[in-house]
Amino acid sequence: MNLYHHRRPDSSLALYIDGNLQFDTRDEAVYHESLALPALCLAKAPRTALICGGGDGLALREVLRFPGIEQVTLIDCSPEVLDFARQELSDLNGNSLDDPRLTLIVADALEAPLADNSFDVIICDFTFPTTKESALGFTVEWYSKLKAALTEGGVLVINTVSPQNTASAFACLVSTIRAAGLNALPYRVCIPSFRDHGYGAWGFILAAKHRLTISSLRGIECPVPTQQADLTALARAARFSVKARIDFAKAPVNRSANPVLQSLLLNPEARATVTDGDAPPDFPNLANQVEISHPYHSRSMIAALAEQVVGSLPSIDLRKLVDELALRAKELPKKIVEELNNLRAYLSRTVLDLDVWGTWASRLLATLILVMVIANSISPDPAFAKGGEGMGHASFSRGFSSHAEFGQISTPPSAPISGRGFTASYGHDPVDIYGYHYTPRFYFYGNGGGYYGGGGGSNQRDVPNRHKPKTHKPLFVLDDDLMAMDNGDFVISLSETAFLVIAEGQVSLMDTQGGAPLTSVFAEPKLFESIRKEVTSQTGDIDREVQVRKDWLSWVGWTSSMFSSVRSDTEEYTNLKDLQRRLGLAMKRLGMSPEAGSIEVPTDAIELFVGCHVLADNRVALYTPGGHPTYLDGTSMISESGKKEKLKPQLKAAIVSILQKMVKEAQRDIKSDEAEIKSLGNELASTQLDLNEYQSIQQQNGFDPSYEVDYGTDSIPVTQAIEKTQQDMTSIALDQKVLEVGIQKSQRELERFQATLQAWSQ
Question: Can you give the pTM of this predicted structure?
Answer without folding.
Answer: 0.56
